[in-house]
Specification:
The chain contains 29 helices and 27 strands. By secondary structure, the chain is an alpha/beta fold. Pfam families: Molybdop_Fe4S4, Molybdopterin, Molydop_binding. One of its GO terms (molecular function) is iron-sulfur cluster binding. Belongs to the prokaryotic molybdopterin-containing oxidoreductase family.
């Protein structure tokens, strides 16, 4: 037996890019621990990362290419599988144009630049990803306001940290919790805006238990309190912003008393929290990727939060919200890898799905929202989509309105999927390709919110017949005659690192690089990257796109206030999608160590509400919305408004037709969307809860 090896690399189970040390014995992965030398995670590892050996060697892992055969799947060769895919893509391109081929990924982890580059060289502008539900609206709202996208909340150096619809203990523990703990140890105040009493909410100096879907009203009220009491940064506002007087007039009516009636948050608590944020500079504001991006007014909310940071002087300062320029390796190739307008003729690039309905996407390179792709498949609007390739994308379960998603895929001429395991989505595929695990491949990774870039060295060879997704694209490009695409994986990685003046072989010895942050870069440049050179509190250019120049609160389309006609049958507010530490969206529901920690979908419900319905803690119940019903286990949760319930998402495994019976997205809606970002309205819906049959077993 060979001596055990320790290999440092990057975990890929979520976007946090935590450092891990893998133990390899005789070419097999035998253990995982956190890397204490990693600059962000500092040795932290979550249950998902720790489960890597279980995932790699799971008996249900797909290890050979599969083709649909007599209602099931049969093993085939890589050559045959790729030939089938290439033939279908070529045929669709010839008959309907290259735009009739769409590739989609789950959360765009890792594969986005490669898929975009492949598609644009093939001739299609259509890369689909759920960015409209996670991160995309933040990029769009911030870019329209101050000229740059995601910011990094500098919690470590903050005197006040505000977490808005953000629970990083479960969603980003390796990325943010070390910094938050650092800030708390230094005495920083903590403000949490969340309908649920999370552990961080209960630790907070100010917890605002908001009614789901009313965040914009609360943010406008924060501005009203700050402006009326002259708590804003007068120097920054005078010298570096446009539209302050218009903003002052716009928010004047959002008094704490009026806003309390809308949000269900006490007026005094709103005043105190707004003052705490404004008077304890530098202050950081951390928005939840899903929490602020899944509403009909997501653009207005992300604009509002950026404006709050701006008028309090917390943009680009230590302890505030730092501008995150793309890491060095991205700066030279970001556009070519992400924006079809760089690589395609304008006429073809303008066919990108979603740009007609969401015109701001013509200027900010956000992937096509899935909900903009569905009509092209369903009815050929604005043109037909015939072939879809999905990479790590269980969208039948993970996207809202699951029933529609399944029906959409059933209409395709051809669907292929790349995934570790069979899912309700791969069940619809014509071809399934088995990818290498992140421990089995070399890659270059960067952080969404920081200017770090990491090497992800391969720790071992892939299980035979599993293949690095980058190699899949190289081989598929060969089948399609795309001679301009990359020829090998090392060439891809060297291309990505070329702007840093290094190669992958050199960089993987170093493991990571950090460019550092520049504070107040606008002073050196003399401007912000906006049309006026200043932060656009009132973004007048939006008028030309039919968008309000100032953030507007819209009552959720399905709420007790907007739909009193539904309130009798559906008296409770349903919010969905809070993260579980042990899962990332719908992934790995078949992994025993993770399933043991969270075996069933649960409905967090106030005990008084549950007892009023004769429902005990832990009982299975029916959760019903205007669109259908699912089965779910009721879990008493004291720190919840009795008028609100919450369900986690992504459950599907282990129940016959489970995606229908226990998947919360059978109840969610994918319309109406945010008119600017295409965000989906899944944080504020209406529902009722009913007791199950006497034996209280899942039916």
């Amino acid at each position: 037996m060979a001596a055990a090896q320790s290999v440092k690399t990057i975990c890929f189970e979520c976007h946090s890019r935590c450092g891990v040390v893998l133990s390899i014995e005789d070419g097999r992965l035998t253990g995982v621990k956190g890397d204490k030398d990693h600059p962000i995670s500092r040795g932290y590892i979550c249950p998902k990362g720790a489960a890597a050996p279980e995932i790699v060697y799971h008996k249900e892992r797909i290890t050979r290419p599969l083709v649909k055969n007599n209602g099931g799947f049969a093993e085939t060769s890589w050559d045959n599988a790729l030939s089938i895919i290439a033939d279908k893509m070529s045929s669709a391109k010839e008959q309907f144009g290259a735009e009739s081929v769409v590739f989609g990924s789950g959360t765009t982890r890792g594969m986005a630049p490669y898929l975009n580059r492949f598609l644009t060289q093939f001739g299609s502008p259509n890369f689909m990803a759920p960015s409209n539900m996670s991160g995309g609206p933040i990029v769009m709202g911030s870019s329209a306001t101050c000229g740059f996208g995601l910011t990094d909340p500098d919690y470590t150096n903050s005197r006040c940290m505000m977490l808005w619809a953000h629970n990083p203990e479960n969603s980003w523990p390796g990325l943010y919790m070390n910094d938050i703990r650092d800030g708390l140890k230094k005495g920083a105040k903590l403000i949490v805006v969340d309908p649920r009493g999370t552990r961080l909410a209960k630790k907070a100096d100010h917890w605002l238990q908001i009614r789901p879907g009313t965040d914009v009203a609360l943010a406008l009220c924060f501005m009203q309190v700050i402006i009326e009491n002259q708590l804003y940064d007068k120097d920054f506002v005078e010298n570096w912003t446009d539209g302050f007087e218009a903003l002052r007039a716009h928010v004047a009516d959002f008094t704490p008393e009026k806003t309390a009636a809308i949000t269900w948050v006490d007026a005094g608590k709103i005043r105190d929290a707004a003052a705490a944020y404004a008077q304890n500079a530098p202050a950081s504001l951390g928005p939840g990727m899903g929490g602020v991006c899944q509403a009909n007014d997501a653009f207005d909310l992300t604009r509002s939060l950026t404006i709050l940071a701006a008028i309090t002087g917390n943009l680009e300062v230590a302890g505030g919200n730092l501008r995150c320029p793309p890491p060095t390796h991205k700066r030279a190739c970001y556009g070519a890898d992400h924006d079809p307008f760089v690589n395609l003729p304008k006429e073809q690039a303008r066919k990108k799905l979603g740009t007609d309905r969401f015109p701001l996407m013509n200027f900010i390179p956000i992937p096509s929202p899935p909900q903009a792709v569905w009509p092209a498949i369903e009815e050929g609007n604005p043109y037909p989509v015939k072939v879809v390739g999905l990479f790590a994308n269980n969208s039948v379960c993970a996207y809202p309105n699951s029933q529609r998603v399944r029906q959409v895929y059933e209409k395709l001429d051809f669907l292929f999927a790349v995934d570790y395991f069979h899912t309700p989505t791969t069940a619809l595929a014509d071809v399934i390709l088995p990818p290498a695990h992140w421990a089995e491949r070399d890659d270059v990774e960067d952080l969404l919110m920081k200017s770090h870039v990491f090497a992800q060295p391969k720790a071992m060879e892939p299980i035979p017949e599993c293949r690095d997704e980058k190699q899949m694209l190289i081989d598929l490009a060969g089948k399609l005659g795309m001679t301009d695409f990359f020829q090998n994986i090392e060439q891809i990685l060297d291309y990505r690192l070329a702007p840093m003046g290094t190669t992958y072989r050199e960089f993987k010895e170093k493991l990571w690089h950090f460019d550092g942050f520049e504070y107040k870069s606008y002073e050196r440049k003399g401007k912000f990257r906006t049309l006026t050179g200043k932060v656009a509190l009132s973004a007048d250019f939006l008028k030309d796109l039919g968008i309000s120049p100032l953030p507007v609160f819209r009552e959720p389309d399905e709420s007790p206030a907007s739909r009193p006609d539904l309130a009798g049958d559906f008296p409770l507010v349903l919010t969905t999608g809070g993260r579980l530490l042990v899962y990332y969206h719908s992934s790995h529901r078949n992994i025993a160590s993770l399933k043991k920690r969270a075996p069933d979908p649960e409905l967090q419900i106030h005990p008084d509400t549950a007892r009023g319905l004769d429902i005990g803690d832990g009982e299975w119940v029916y959760l019903i919305s205007p669109r259908g019903q699912v089965e779910i286990r009721a879990r008493y949760f004291e720190d919840m408004d009795p008028r609100v319930v919450h369900s986690h998402h992504g459950f599907w495994y282990g129940v016959k037709d489970g995606w229908k019976r226990i998947n919360i997205n059978m109840l969610t809606s994918d319309e109406p969307l945010c008119p600017v970002t295409g965000s989906v309205p899944i944080k504020a819906l209406m529902c009722r809860v009913e007791k199950m049959a006497k034996n209280n077993e899942k039916q």
